[in-house]
Amino acid sequence: MARKATVQRELKRQKLANKFAAKRAELKAIGDYEGLAKLPRNSNPVRQHNRCEITGRPRAFIRDFGLSRITFREQASNGKIPGITKSSW
Prior knowledge:
Shape: elongated
Order of helices and strands: HHHEEH
């Protein structure tokens, strides 16, 4: 389980990126790089990191499901993800 502060920091980055998205696009279109530099650093969407929705784990993230590999396997084994079954041949 990730620290709560780390998960909250990622949520803050996401909110800032959404808040400044229009202004950032406008400044990029104009070519005003000094204006872009004055925006908060965390408003840049590149600084966001994908995290598991349940545990907050930053590594081994499966984008289609929004889960880490460990959580994905647990959920799939319990039958909580529709259409996913353990393969056997």
